[in-house]
């Protein structure tokens, strides 16, 4: 039995290792390409033969890039905080209060998950125009301030919290909002972590909407800004790869910070089903 | 009496909490959707000033457009090939990963890397990998193995599968993380008990673990189906000039909608097509919910 | 006291009136050297016209057209805008562009100051809508180092001979895979233009009727044999194939293609590549026929510009299309002056020369739907090359599809 187990473990590690290489290889290609000078970019070698920081220097002295990085950060952080707050509040309300219209509201919110964004961008655009939001961060952010998916996740989560706990708090004289804020929120930290990361990634990498609504290069986010490097005259692969590498770094950091919470979060949600 | 007033109090509290979100969903989701629905019965073109009601003409038009039918079929193909592949692979890997303790975190991080890399960048790198010789990485591997080279993205038969593989590669990490999380909630006693009963490893996996993962599987199948139905960025960036080529063999519905809306500016027609996509998403989600619920 | 205040108010009022500036907005797509050039021109323009301020906004090339269209219903677009000539009919039709003032921009003005194809392409139903600074044409680029391998200093002038040279310069690995293209075959690059406006004519045909309303390439000259000829170079000669090394530009830039057909706008990019030693000659002739494809980006005034803004826009338009601007444009971006007189002194330039000579016998295609018309050409080639459809069927299908697009446009 034990011998069998060892064999199995070795086998597992080999398979997992090969897979890990397969998963990481394109990623390595991207990073190493960012250190290649432009004339070496199409070589078939993974490692640059004469590594250079030129691409990084270019991208940061290139007028827009630092600003795009800032824009992406602002948009991703603010929408993430807004989503965390509203989604948990709505999830809490739907899970813990019985009131007329609860089910229909939940179904309606859930159904928004199925509306393709592509269907909404034109009305959003017209709306931004009419309400004079163009050129502001708000115009970039407003479609993502609350997410249906997050509400679904939160509701699933909140339902696992025993009602007795809330009743006890009520007896202690806490207001309903305080119950949400002081009792419930700390209990769902893992779920918040999950929501935070997926939402952050989503907003950081969002492409279609920022592309449509950003009025000038000052308001661009990273993925949109990267389109500047594939102009009509040439594909600046080395700049694209550099930009992509830089824009991935915050996400990796973010993932590392929240890794544990994500696992916990999903776990609880999965058990509940 | 007391119960009634309490209920009223909760109702008021609930709607106070929901006030801003309800307005948000109305203004940012439902009204635009209704607007979009209404537009699908008009000939609204971004470049023309007047809008006319034309009934079902747009629908008649798209269903007689072979490019639309092709992209509809492509979208279904993406789901049919992509979803089972990503679910099956991620489940196997997650089970395997769950058994090991050392470096589990490292593997998890490596696997999830593709998911957190911007999709635009992923597409470009893969496009590069699929190139014909002498540039393409895969073809040079094939050459080294003395196998015949492939056209990959340049072939009408292979291109769609190439994009499926890239997408599976991206989504795999996400599914693994979620499956793994689910696996770690399964009480060890269940497995120990089965083991004492003499169940083999394979039996434990398929008879105990997988059924316990049903809720998570359902969640993932629905989520992945929706994401494959909405496939866009990778196709746009991996086909020549974002055309969904060669010969429309990779064009999904969303790209069709995008082209109608932002290249031809035919908003009415694009709205009609997006309505079809919406119906498709509803339909597939419904079927899956039903099917997976019944089986358990 | 009161009087003093009154004077002060009056003074401030007059002061502010005299110094109030008209601000106009100019849009173009992002291209580093073009952006810099326009910025430089704006500076000079503002010095000459202190009461006008020009705001310059750029967008990535890929999404430029979309951006422009999206700004239209909202009425927030620019006053002066840079558009591809092939998009003009669509934007004119939709009422986006304003007819240019007749007193300056009339037939004489265009006849005297621009290449002949410009006048045809910026007018619609007898009215003029846009003015270019620069124009473009095609030429044959060749890699000097590779050509020297067989002792050639320059590619031959005749198409058949060019292909013979290409065959000699193509290299294959031991399994027969092309590893160096003798001649790039890239329909998504400039070849769809080359096929339509150059090869069709060289095979004795005419692509369209002169009123641009009817497709003729399937009815005149060698008809579908043009397409067959093109695909044969891929399949039979294997001197190149679509997407070899991702695209023709990449292949040529990395010394993996001996010859390629490309536009004048590529000069700047290629010059920046220090590993490349290349030359340019006129497009190869065939059956004694020379032809070329010309295109350009032109500046138009949108219907947003009214009153003072309109006057300022017209001034700005004249300024950025002046001979002086053209020379600066050529120097900075490598794009050819739209005015033959300005171009004259560059006729013997080894790089600009072939393009300028090409302009004299060039044609500009009329596009009702530029993207669709480009794609149907690419698809015709793909169908024969990838799907083994007969050239006859594929060519007919392309012609029918294109005819439908033209009919739809003209019957609107």
Automatic annotation (TrEMBL), chain A:
It is a multi-pass membrane protein. Keywords: Cell membrane, Membrane, Transmembrane, Transmembrane helix, Transport. One of its GO terms (biological process) is transmembrane transport. The chain crosses the membrane at residues 9-32, 68-92, 104-125, 137-158, 240-258. Residues 69-258 form the ABC transmembrane type-1 domain. SUPFAM superfamilies: MetI-like. GO terms for cellular component: plasma membrane. InterPro entries: MetI-like, MetI-like_sf. It comes from the Bacteria. It is found in: Cell membrane. It holds the Pfam family BPD_transp_1. Belongs to the binding-protein-dependent transport system permease family. This is Carbohydrate ABC transporter membrane protein 2 (CUT1 family). It comes from Oceanotoga teriensis.
From TrEMBL, chain C:
The keyword Signal applies. The keyword Transport applies. It comes from the Bacteria. This is Carbohydrate ABC transporter substrate-binding protein (CUT1 family). Keywords: Signal, Transport. Belongs to the bacterial solute-binding protein 1 family. The lineage of its organism: Bacteria, Thermotogati, Thermotogota, Thermotogae, Petrotogales. Gene3D superfamilies: Periplasmic binding protein-like II (3.40.190.10). It holds the Pfam family SBP_bac_8. One of its GO terms (biological process) is maltose transport. One of its GO terms (molecular function) is maltose binding. InterPro entries: SBP. One of its GO terms (cellular component) is ATP-binding cassette (ABC) transporter complex, substrate-binding subunit-containing.
């Amino acid at each position: 039995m034990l011998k069998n187990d060892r064999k199995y473990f070795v086998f597992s590690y080999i398979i997992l290792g090969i897979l890990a290489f397969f998963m990481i290889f394109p990623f390595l290609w991207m990073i190493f390409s960012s250190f290649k000078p432009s004339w070496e970019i199409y070589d078939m070698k993974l490692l640059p033969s004469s590594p250079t920081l030129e691409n990084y220097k270019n991208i940061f002295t290139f007028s827009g890039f630092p600003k795009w990085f800032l824009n992406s950060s602002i948009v991703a952080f603010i929408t993430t905080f807004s989503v965390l707050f509203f989604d948990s509040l709505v999830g809490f309300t739907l899970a813990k209060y019985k009131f007329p219209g609860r089910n229909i509201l939940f179904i309606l919110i859930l159904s928004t998950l199925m509306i393709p964004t592509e269907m909404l961008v034109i009305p959003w655009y017209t709306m931004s125009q009419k309400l004079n939001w163009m050129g502001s961060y708000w115009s970039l952010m407003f479609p993502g301030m609350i997410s249906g998916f997050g509400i679904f996740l939160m509701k699933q989560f909140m339902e696992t919290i025993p009602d007795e706990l809330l009743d006890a708090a009520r007896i202690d004289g806490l207001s309903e909002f305080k119950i949400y804020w002081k009792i419930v929120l700390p209990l769902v930290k893992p779920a918040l972590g999950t929501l935070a990361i997926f939402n952050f990634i989503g907003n950081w990498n969002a492409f279609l909407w920022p592309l449509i609504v950003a009025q000038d290069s000052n308001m661009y986010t990273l993925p949109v800004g990267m389109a500047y490097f594939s102009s009509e005259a040439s594909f600046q692969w080395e700049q694209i790869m550099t930009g992509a590498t830089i824009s991935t770094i915050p996400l990796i950091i973010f993932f590392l910070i929240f890794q544990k919470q994500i696992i916990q979060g999903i776990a609880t949600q999965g058990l509940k089903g | 009496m007391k119960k009634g007033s309490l209920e009223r109090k909760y109702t008021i509290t609930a709607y106070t909490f929901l006030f801003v979100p309800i307005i948000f969903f109305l203004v940012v989701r439902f009204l635009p959707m209704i607007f979009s629905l209404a537009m699908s019965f008009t000939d609204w073109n971004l470049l023309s000033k007047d809008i006319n009601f034309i009934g079902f003409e747009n629908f008649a038009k798209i269903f007689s457009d072979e490019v639309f039918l092709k992209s509809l079929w492509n979208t279904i193909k993406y789901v049919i090939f992509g979803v089972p592949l990503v679910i099956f692979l991620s489940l196997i890997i997650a089970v395997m990963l769950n058994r090991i303790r050392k470096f589990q975190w490292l593997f998890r991080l490596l696997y999830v890397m593709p998911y957190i890399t911007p999709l635009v960048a992923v597409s470009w790198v893969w496009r590069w990998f699929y190139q014909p010789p002498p540039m393409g990485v895969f073809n040079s591997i094939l050459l080294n193995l003395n196998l015949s080279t492939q056209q990959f993205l340049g072939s009408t038969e292979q291109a769609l599968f190439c994009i499926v593989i890239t997408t599976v590669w991206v989504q795999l990490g996400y599914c693994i993380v979620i499956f793994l999380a689910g696996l770690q909630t399964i009480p060890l006693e269940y497995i120990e008990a089965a083991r004492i009963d003499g169940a083999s490893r394979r039996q434990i996996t398929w008879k105990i673990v997988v059924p316990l993962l049903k809720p998570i599987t359902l969640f993932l199948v629905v989520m992945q189906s929706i994401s494959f139905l909405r496939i866009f960025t990778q196709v746009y960036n991996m086909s020549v000039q974002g055309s969904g080529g060669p010969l429309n063999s990779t064009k999904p519905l969303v790209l069709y909608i995008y082209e109608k809306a932002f290249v031809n500016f035919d908003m009415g027609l694009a709205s009609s097509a997006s309505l079809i996509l919406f119906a498709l998403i509803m339909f597939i989600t419904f079927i899956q919910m039903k099917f997976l619920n019944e089986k358990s | 006291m009161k009087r003093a205040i009154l004077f002060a108010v009056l003074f401030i009022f007059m002061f502010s009136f005299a110094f109030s500036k008209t601000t106009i907005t100019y849009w173009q797509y992002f291209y580093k050297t073009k952006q810099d050039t326009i910025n430089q021109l704006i500076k000079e323009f503002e010095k000459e016209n202190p009461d006008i301020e020009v705001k310059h906004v750029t967008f990535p090339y890929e999404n430029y057209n979309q951006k422009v269209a999206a700004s239209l219903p909202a009425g927030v677009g620019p006053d002066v805008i840079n558009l591809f000539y092939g998009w003009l009919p669509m934007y004119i039709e939709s009422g986006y562009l304003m007819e240019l003032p007749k007193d300056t921009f009339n037939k004489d003005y265009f006849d005297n100051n621009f290449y002949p194809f410009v006048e045809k392409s910026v007018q619609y139903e007898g009215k003029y809508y846009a003015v270019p600074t620069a124009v473009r044409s095609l030429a044959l680029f060749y890699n000097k180092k590779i050509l020297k391998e067989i002792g050639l200093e320059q590619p031959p002038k005749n198409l058949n001979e060019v292909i013979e040279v290409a065959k000699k310069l193509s290299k294959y690995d031991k399994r027969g895979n092309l590893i160096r293209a003798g001649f790039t075959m890239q329909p998504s690059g400039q070849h769809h233009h080359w096929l339509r406006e150059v090869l069709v004519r060289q095979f004795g045909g005419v692509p369209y009727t002169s009123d641009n309303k009817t497709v003729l390439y399937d009815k005149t000259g060698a008809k579908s044999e043009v397409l067959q000829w093109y695909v044969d170079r891929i399949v039979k000669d294997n001197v190149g194939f679509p997407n070899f090394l991702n695209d023709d530009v990449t292949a040529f830039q990395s010394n993996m293609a001996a010859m390629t057909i490309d536009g004048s706008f590529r000069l700047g990019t290629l010059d920046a590549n220090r590993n490349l030693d290349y030359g340019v000659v006129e497009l190869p002739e065939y059956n004694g026929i020379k032809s070329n494809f010309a295109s350009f980006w032109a500046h138009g005034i949108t219907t947003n510009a009214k009153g003072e803004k309109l006057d300022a826009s017209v001034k700005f338009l004249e300024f950025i299309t002046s001979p002086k601007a053209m020379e600066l444009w050529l120097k900075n971006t490598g794009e050819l002056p739209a005015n033959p007189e300005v171009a004259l002194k560059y006729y013997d330039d080894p790089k600009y020369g072939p393009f300028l000579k090409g302009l004299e016998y060039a044609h500009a295609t009329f596009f009702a739907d530029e993207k669709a018309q480009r794609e149907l050409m690419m698809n015709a080639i793909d169908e024969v090359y990838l799907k083994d459809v007969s050239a006859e069927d594929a060519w007919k299908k392309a012609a029918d599809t294109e005819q439908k697009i033209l009919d739809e446009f003209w019957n609107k």
